[in-house]
Amino acid sequence: MTARNKKLTVADVARAAKVSKATAARVLGGYGVTSERTREAVLQAAQDLGYRPNELARSVSTGRSGLIGVVVGDIENAFFARAVRGISDTARAAGLNVIISNSGEDLAQERALVSVLLRQQVQGLIVAPTDDGDVAHLAEAMASGTPVVTIDRWVEGLGADGICGDDRAATAALVAQMQALGHRRIAYVTAIRTPQPRLQSLAQVRIAAVRERIAGFLSAAPAGQDWHERVHTNATGAAAIDAIVARLLSETPGVTAILASDSLVGAEVFRALSARGIALPAQMSLVAWFDADWSRVTVPAVTVVDQPTHRFGALAAERIIARIGGETGPARHQRIETPLIRRGSLGPAPGD
Amino acid sequence: MTARNKKLTVADVARAAKVSKATAARVLGGYGVTSERTREAVLQAAQDLGYRPNELARSVSTGRSGLIGVVVGDIENAFFARAVRGISDTARAAGLNVIISNSGEDLAQERALVSVLLRQQVQGLIVAPTDDGDVAHLAEAMASGTPVVTIDRWVEGLGADGICGDDRAATAALVAQMQALGHRRIAYVTAIRTPQPRLQSLAQVRIAAVRERIAGFLSAAPAGQDWHERVHTNATGAAAIDAIVARLLSETPGVTAILASDSLVGAEVFRALSARGIALPAQMSLVAWFDADWSRVTVPAVTVVDQPTHRFGALAAERIIARIGGETGPARHQRIETPLIRRGSLGPAPGD
DNA sequence: TTGTATGCGTTATCAG
DNA sequence: CTGATAACGCATACAA
């Protein structure tokens, strides 16, 4: 308990307890065997001095750091924040510590972060890869013996376990439901960056979760209709989204419903619609991914595709823990159901 | 570049480059001096083998981990998420890595996390202490040579640098402004947990930021009026907040404005008001702390006390970096201005 | 400029 | 059950 300024080592405790370094290390490290008497003496000494084990030295010695690394696109996004929470909760329960970092959805940054984490000797990596066409850094991590789990985003061929939503099926079902409500022209709005403002081809989408959603969206298109032109990209920031909404509203025949690919896009679309005096759902329906706080606060509340994100994180942590524990076998792809939460923003198409 | 399965060490690189371990270590570690020729040979060998330095071993050797630890109340709260982002951004720029953890606003958990972080040899700690009456663990960290910076929450007497808002002054000014708008009965709603549903005394509030806000709130009370009864506590979760709003609405004479102590409380209060058909600001005004996403999405948009949270984080990181760099001197208390962003939810009191 | 030898704080092996 | 002593991977004082 005594405050001190120099770091104490097992040697110091050993000296105080009048035992050898090895014995002190045994009781402090909780391994090997010692008599009850010496055990107590050592613990007492450690207590008195205020000894605190050096985990780094322990890691170097054992080769196990007890660390797992996490790379997300944006910790400020509630989706990732909650996922991180899920990861942390189950990792900590398993005695693992977590290092979190932010790629900002930038590939170069992601590479750099993975490298840093590997140098920190993380025993496993949970990543939301920003570009599933360029995952050499992840493959290399796996090749060098550090297991990788992707979260929210499955990467075909990488061989890493992945936790993600049932994006394609859920979207197809959602669009079918919307068509039953009379919606014939639906727009999809996403933050994915492309050269043109509309999607040219699915291959432009390097994030599987979004690609699958769009695939589900396109699969619902009636024969002969090209829905690609209904997929609006580059929806990053208020100005861009406002412009997209403006474009949408001036189309003829009019779009009657909007799908927002994440909760940030959803919020801005809602705002742009409100600002223009568009009534939801009378004039326009809106559905967004992720049940963010704001979705239930607006009037009307917003229909969302609920992603059980905390569970995404928990499952990802479970997977990485299993792999760290030596589990072998082919990559496991876990698809989590993402049920629709129906709220006021989704209604019948106008005039239907 | 070659994939391998065993971890490589300087020794391996040295062997491949046909130099001594020390020489290899020098060029790989970027210290000491070497000839250009051997330098290139070593780098080439490292490249070929796919060598990756072990930062933990380096840390043990140098005594510097390059890590700073962060303990926040809730990473899912946008306030903390953004603060963490600010911390990470400037820490990384200074070559430091960040370990983030969640106390869940639980003191025991906070203590445990601080302990874990210290064992991980973090060189500094940035903490949002959940109880400023019990900071022995932080004092101990400082005493043992690990500097501490508190964020959002100043702790008197701890001796740690602190970054926080100008809570008291900003609140007093805000309340004055509201009084000028005719509001005579204002309620303050906070998630702070107390035995009773109303605040009995300021000392019950163990988080300085909130205490200061309430102090500012109370200081605006006209002589003879006890505003304590207007401070509603335990506002955690939708049900509790709904009950508080219900109580508020049934008071006579009626409350005409509500202050929500954080953005989660604010969102739920807004929702509870909407659900009851209360018109903002015609029947009730609302002001919340933190400019969360949802604040600009509602109709009307919500007036907020803007906390430049990314800057909170950046400044906290700067402080901890300075202290790690050896800066001495008394604890620095930096108060950041938190300007009001006036939006539709704040209007004149009804009938004024 | 390079190599040798030792230390960092821990674990872990091996006698005693 | 305990105590020397050698790792772990890297840094560093000192010698060559």
Task: State the assembly state of the protein chains.
Answer: homodimer
CATH superfamily of the largest domain in chain A: Response regulator
What percentage of residues of chain A falls in helices of 4 or more residues?
Answer: 40-55%
Strand content of chain A: 5-15%
Which strand order spans the largest sheet of chain A, edge to edge or round the barrel? Answer: 2-1-3-4-5-11
The third-level CATH topology of the largest domain in chain A is Rossmann fold
Main sheet makeup of chain A? 6 strands, parallel
Number of domains of chain A: 3
Mean pLDDT score of chain A: 95
Protein chain pair with the most extensive contact, residues per chain: A-B, 52 and 51 residues
Low-confidence stretches of chain A: none
Based on CA atoms alone, the radius of gyration of chain A comes out at 26 Å
Shape descriptor of chain A:
elongated
Known CATH architecture of the largest domain in chain A:
3-Layer(aba) Sandwich
Helix-strand pattern of chain A = HHHHEHEHEHEEHEHEHEHEEHEE
Q: What is the number of E strands of chain A?
A: 12
Query: What structural class do helix, strand and pairing data of chain A support?
Result: alpha/beta
In CATH's first tier, which class of the largest domain in chain A applies? Answer: Alpha Beta
**Given the structure, what is the number of helices of chain A?**
12
Distance between the termini of chain A: 74 Å
GO molecular function (chains A, B): DNA-binding transcription factor activity; transcription cis-regulatory region binding
Pfam family, one (chains A, B): Peripla_BP_3
InterPro entries (chains A, B): HTH_LacI, LacI/GalR-like_sensor, Lambda_DNA-bd_dom_sf, Peripla_BP_I
Protein name (chains A, B): Substrate-binding domain-containing protein
